[in-house]
Amino acid sequence: MAPAVKNKSPLTPVLIIPGFMSSALTVEKSPQKSWNGKRIWLNLSSLGFQSLRVGGALRENEKVRASQQNNPKGNKSSESSDALHQQYMKEVECKSRWVQHMCLRDDMKSEKDGIEVRPVPGCAGVDYLSSGALTESLTYVFGPVLVLLKSKGYKEGVNLDAAPYDWRLSPDMLQQRDKYFTNTMQTITHLYRQSNNTPVMILCHSMGCKTGHFLFNFVRFHLGEDDGQKWLDKYIHSYVPIGAPHIGAPKSVRAVIDGDKMGLDAFLDDDEGLMLGRSLGSSPWLFPLENTLATPISPSVPPSVLRLESSIVLTIPTQTIPMKGFVYRRAVMPSKVRLAIHLAKDFVVRTEFYPLSRGKSPTLLLKEEVWCIALPPTIEESLKLYPNICVHLEELGAGKPRKKRRGIYHCDIFWPCRFAFCMMKWILCLPCAIVLKILRILARGADRGIEVTAGAVGSFRAIGKSRKVNWGKGLIASNKAASSDGGESGGVGSELSFQILPTDREGQGFFFEIPSSQQCVLKVKWRPPPPMKERRPFDKVTHKRMTIHKYYPATSGELCAAEGLNNAVKLLRDSYAADPVDPRGLSSWYPPPIKKVVAIYGINLPTEVSGIYQRKQSVKLSYSTSKDLCVRQLIVLDKDAKLNGLDGYTIESGIIRETKGKAKKSGDGTVPYWSLQHCRTWQGEGVKKCDVNVYEIEGAEHRAILNEAKFHKILLEVIGCV
Q: Which of 314, 322, 471, 625 shows its CA 20 to 30 Å from the CA of 304?
């Protein structure tokens, strides 16, 4: 048998580099000791919140309990309901802990204190994210490929291995923290020697393609250009990118701006998706490159489009408002009141509810709140849309508030008549008076019931209103200040004063005290729209109803800056742009220093190619109860945008997708076609004059291609195992 093995040509060794979210992660260190050694990505059952899915028994039970609490006459919860509630609270705590373990610090580089999460090494970290007969078919990564290769004689650790990595990190942190690229070089050397000095094929998928591309240039930087190239020529057989986002994928930008639940929509809420998406240092690696429009197949739609808008910062300073005139003769004093700022009939900004002080002269203490409000790009257009502003004082409730009955001690000029009528009513018509009294008692009880119900469902009524105030002078003054310095200051603050009058003044006047109006002060500061570098508007996108809105192409960095994600902007500048291996240029756009490239990807599926973004209409910038602004969202998808004259594209809720056309191909459902096919530009280029072969598989989805029979056939042909 031994001589037969020697005469047989060795199999081409294969090293697998998985994509984004495709390396299993395990907890090596945690404040929660019971979590040490457990998979955190992805094994929800072992972490304790697998039952916390939308529509599950636990969430449905919480809805029933909430409805019972809002209904004072509802049935009391049963023991089983209480048990489910306790389990729900326990799993919510586990989920919160899981999010804390998965999220990086604000710098998008380092982990939180006491937490260490690391990739599962070897092929076990890239086969299935969650093992088990029921979950393997749903969470496969390279599992089907490993089964295929092993059936052809491949053996783990000999001629088959994988290089999982912490896909949350930027490439510089992969090397700095985990020594990932130097360790991967050692793995390649080991496979080479174990396979009778046979060069190694680098098989990558999705973001793993960018990781592999970076690895090749890292070798040249780490060993020097000449020695590094000699190492690559000796140890690397070929580079096989599968579904590669060579020059980015617009979906990654949306994950940062709008949040990314990582496929766990049934378990995570929107805020948790935002926290996850905005903490990952690897996200900018997938951002579309700024020179995307220079590709041979230039996209008809820019990867990101932003509606041009200005904004105002509206500050409600801390102030005290006397409330005696607003609660005149009230039978029940309101417990809390809020301020509502009306810019239009359907556009209102409301503060939190604040409690009233007790006593003969109650007061309302408003605490400082800061809001950002989106406006058209110019002052003139803004004032045309919102010419006036007024403020209301609101309390919970419905209808008119109940007042105290007026007795004869409320002396007025008609008190003798009132007294005579009262005596006649009780002496001459006693039965009628009794019936009237009973009806009033019943009506009073009904009013109280309405009040309780209205408060429970969040209904409110105005107890004070101001007149409309034209705020144009303040905005114009702020605009002039902004124009004098190029908009750097964003204008000066302008102060607006409002006189608020009670809405209910029944029984006031004549011999009675007329409450004076109370003053409320607001501050506004105008911010000009972001500079668009004198670029042309993208006229293929317009607003469904308003013609004043213009849309412009925007880079990923500009969107992050508009969203206030300074940490992401800093990471792009300090970690990506300053990296000598250049992950978003040399290691993306330009050919790799490898002679043979075999690209395989799916085509002709509806694929996201752009997001249309706008400023959120109003956003609270200050929080009196929480300092965590990570989930504050300033930029959102523009669901009122529409496409004009673009065949082969569809738009839904601000997301533009490319589709198959007569003379046009589309991507694999995740990566646009213009990014997948960019490798064609490498043919005959680069230090090794790349030989590029491309295989396009009709209808193969981005992840499902790994379990696609057509892909398996192509892979075996490339390896030489047919």
A: 314
